[in-house]
Structure formats: structure tokens, C-alpha cells
Amino acid sequence: MLVRIPPTAESTPAGARLHQNGYFIPVEADEGRVVSVWTPLEGVMHGSTVVDALTVLPGTHRGPLLQHDLSAHEQGGLVSNPPQGLNSLSLAVEPGDVVFLHPRLLHGSQPNRNSSERTELLAHYASARAAFVERPHVNKEYWKQNAQLVRGVSSNL
């Protein structure tokens, strides 16, 4: 999926606030079954300086999927109660770098403070052995229609 993030004013809390991709993908988030791949294509540089475009909370992939506040999405907030006492890590990535994300890893992006849009490529991969799970906030039919079998034998998806 190609994602375009427009420039935002200093006062706008845009960007993707802390969230877990597994909350939005209707597939079991067990070890080795799902991975997200994020590749910035442009807009992560501000002049000659790399902008911290992605923040992760190391270790959160070992915990459960957290409750997300979908009503706060437009204000930039998603995770209702992020774990306390964890250090965040800002990743300074350049166009073309590839970041692999565990479905339970808590992460988010900074607002785009550049004068041009930030363009990213986002893909989610799941094992053919992964099973759909019911998540009332996720359109499971969308995922079924848009998923493609890359390798293996389709058994659950």
C-alpha cells in the first residue's frame, strides 16, 4: 500500500500516534505468522538532515495487543493506555531503508514537518497457516479480497 502523508502545521498532532499493526490486521498475531514491512520512499529528510520518522517501543512485541482508541485517530492518538516505564527509540531512516515490524510492536510516526509530502510503502505478510480472527473494528472482507497468496498452499486465509 502506498501511503502519502501531507505536510502538517507545527500545531497539528498529525502522524501515526502509537499503535500496533496487529490490532488492524484480522490475522492471529502469534510469533512468526505476520510481519509488516515499512519503507520510506521520500520525505524523511529535512534538507540534508534525516528526520526521525518512526518511533518504536522496544519490548512491546512481547506483550499483548493493547486496546486502541479509534475515536482519537483523527487527533493522532490510538493506544488508550500505553505501557509505562518503557523507553522509546527514534529510528532515523533514509529513503529506501526497510523496517520490519512485529504485529504487536508499539510504534508511531512523527508529524511531517517538511514542505512536501512524505511517501511510504507499507506491506503486511502473513503465513498461509495463519488464521483470520474476528475483530469488530476491522473489515475482514477487505483483507480477504486484497490478500494474495505469494507462496505455499492457502489453508486459512
Automatic annotation (TrEMBL):
It holds the Pfam family PhyH. Its EC number is 1.14.11.18. InterPro entries: PhyH, Phytyl_CoA_dOase-like. SUPFAM superfamilies: Clavaminate synthase-like. GO terms for molecular function: phytanoyl-CoA dioxygenase activity. It is an enzyme of class 1 (oxidoreductase). Coiled coil: none annotated. GO terms for biological process: fatty acid alpha-oxidation. It comes from the Eukaryota. Belongs to the PhyH family. This is phytanoyl-CoA dioxygenase. It comes from Ornithodoros erraticus.
